[in-house]
Amino acid sequence: MSRRGAKGAGVGRGVIVLAGEDANDCQILAEFIKAHHPGLGDAKIVRINDPVRLKKKTGATLEENVRVLVGKAKGRALREKGPLVGFAVHEDLDDYAGNRYRTVRQAVSAELSRQCPAEAAYALAAWESESWLLLFPEAFAQVRPKWKVPAQLRGKDTGLIDSPKEKLKRGLGSPSFRESDGPAIAKKALEKGLLTAPVGRNTSHSDLVAELAHWPTHT
User: Fold this and answer.
1) Which helix (DSSP H) or strand (DSSP E) does residue 91 occupy?
2) Nearest residue to 136 via CA among 77, 73, 201, 92
3) Longest Cα pair distance anywhere in the chain, in angstroms?
4) Distances from the Cα of 181 to the Cα of 31, 91, 95, 159, 187, angstroms
5) pLDDT exceeds cutoff 90 at 13
6) Is pLDDT above 80 for 9?
7) Structure confidence at residue 219 as a pLDDT band (50, 70, 90)
8) Distances (CA, A) of 56 to 99, 125, 193, 207
9) What's the rounded Cα separation, in Å, for the pair 5 and 84?
10) Which of 17-28 are b and which e, b meaning 16 or more Cβ less than 10 Å from the residue's Cβ?
11) What three-state secondary structure class fits 194?
12) CB atoms within 10 A of CB 34
């Protein structure tokens, strides 16, 4: 167990707080956390509704925005009557995993780590959460049997596929893909053991998995 994880030991059921652009992204993020930290299965995963707008912030503005989010996370854990053992924050970059991605991720991750009393992770998706879902193409048919991810979207560097959400809407067929399908796809991928065996690559996904690896293995 890490130093931060140990701080909450023996206090009660651990709490993992998520923040993101919307509920769908947070639900997808929750499945990734479960996949890469099955030992945290006893932790309660909850969400704060505050919209995340960190990727364009710098300096004192970034510091203040992170302070507000961390404060909300600590408050939510208190309401759940358990120690805060993890805080994960999601944003879509709407861009490739290039220089801008590295600059934003380094700055925000460092500030989250500095201010959060528990383990923290910054889930900065390049382009969108849907680019992560494309790493698990077999899960789509588990949700909609008629769906098949087109060959041009399979086994690729999905961080280099711009606007993956729109490409899925056009490429999967009927019924049309919706953002609300994302959590169901991630859940099926977890159930089928796919989330730890991506098909293709995505730097932003790999960075998130690496960051989660530093979290405590149990609450």
Assistant:
1) strand 84-92
2) 201
3) 50
4) 14, 18, 22, 20, 10
5) no
6) no
7) low
8) 14, 14, 35, 19
9) 9
10) bbbbbbebbbbb
11) coil
12) 18
Q: Which residue has the tokens 């652009």?
A: 21
Token pair, residue 173, equals 């067929």
Here the tokens at position 127 are: 């382009």
- Within a 10 A sphere around the Cβ of 197, how many other Cβ atoms? 12
Between CA 151 and CA 93 the distance in angstroms is 25
3-state helix, strand, coil in the chain (%, to 5): 50, 10, 40
The predicted-structure confidence for 26-77, as pLDDT tens digits, reads as follows: 999 999 999 998 777 689 999 999 989 999 999 999 999 999 999 999 999 9
Q: Give the C-alpha distances (Å, rounded to integers) separating 32 from 60, 68, 79, 167.
A: 31, 25, 24, 23
Q: Which single residue is written with the structure tokens 């206090």?
A: 11
**pLDDT, tens digit (0-9, with 9 covering 90-100), for 105-163:** 999 999 999 999 999 999 999 999 999 999 999 999 999 999 999 999 999 999 999 99
DSSP 8-state secondary structure symbol assigned to residue 151: G
pLDDT at 40: 74
